[in-house]
Amino acid sequence: MIKEIKVYLFILLALALIFTYGYLFYPHSPVKPTGLSLERPSAVHVLGTDDLGMDIFAQISRGFYISMFIGLSTAGLACSAGGILGIASGFRGGKTDGVIGFFINLFLSVPQLPIMIVIGAFFGQSIWNVIVIISLFSWASIAKIVRAKTLQIKSKDYIKIAQSYGASFFYILTNHLIREISPLLLVNTLAVIGKAIVQEASLAFLGLSDPVSKTWGLMINKAVNFPGIYFTHYWLWWLLPPLVCLMLTTYCLRMISREIENTITK
User: Fold this and answer.
1) Of 18, 60, 109, 244, which has the fewest Cβ atoms less than 10 A away?
2) Secondary structure string (H, E, C) spanning 169-232
3) Residues of the chain with pLDDT under 70
């Protein structure tokens, strides 16, 4: 398991290093034309240029860090909310569990993408709006898992003994709950990062993300909507690279999450 995790981490690290060069040291700007329209890949423009003469590699490099920022921010919000509400629901029980459980089931039952599209269109095109919208539909599954784990821990004898001796909720939380729930939150954090990257790309592809952010979804949207792109070779350096980067990044995150989950459950 550890060997597989190292492989996927190495791939992510390699991508990060490549795109760090493209974002910080590459001589071309991702937001300004630096060449002719639709130049082929060359020593000057590694992956060619788009229809406006902007360098593709520079845009992909910037898109990587925007995607990771969105993924990490979303994961932080969703896992914090899901962890807190899941623990509160499982440990407190009663009306608290009923209210939180209702909202968990509500957010798990609604069709996410249509609602996200409506909310995104209503609140406008902004990366922060995208982060909040994706977080809003990511916390419920985490809260459900954490609630179930909290109920399992709560029923153990050492928790009951601690409570009988007057242990406070804060003591049980810091000495028992957090220690046993942290691995679950780690797995779900990695899963949410990959999910958020894909969902942001979906919203950007539909034109509901920041139009100047140069995300992978926006690049794919522009390439697909270019007239006659499939009758030319332009798609090879304009459409294919951001699509492959999106798939490879989310695949690595998903596999790392799965391998950690398999290690925990053994």
Assistant:
1) 109
2) HHHHHHHHHHHHHHHHHHHHHHHHHHHHHHHHHHHHHCCCCCCCCCCHHHHHHHHHCCCCHHHC
3) 1, 124-125, 265-266
In the three-class reduction of DSSP (H, G, I as helix; E, B as strand; rest coil), residue 93 is classed as coil
Domains of the chain, earliest start first: 2-31+54-265 (1.10.3720.10)
Whole-prediction pTM: 0.85
Helix axes 216-224, 240-265, angle to 10 degrees: 140
Angle CA(153)–CA(158)–CA(163) in degrees, nearest 5?
90
pLDDT digits (tens, 9 = 90+) for 162-183: 888 787 878 888 888 888 888 8
Residue 197: partners with Cβ closer than 8 Å, 6 or more residues away: 67, 68, 70, 71, 246, 249, 250, 253
The answer to whether 28 and 58 are in contact (CB under 8 A) is: yes
What does the pLDDT read at residue 62? 92
What share of the chain in percent tops pLDDT 90?
26
Tell me whether residue 226 is exposed, middle or buried, using C-beta atoms within 10 angstroms of its C-beta: 0 to 12, 13 to 18, 19 or more: middle
Q: What is the pLDDT of residues 63-94, one digit of tens each?
A: 999 888 988 999 999 999 999 999 998 888 88
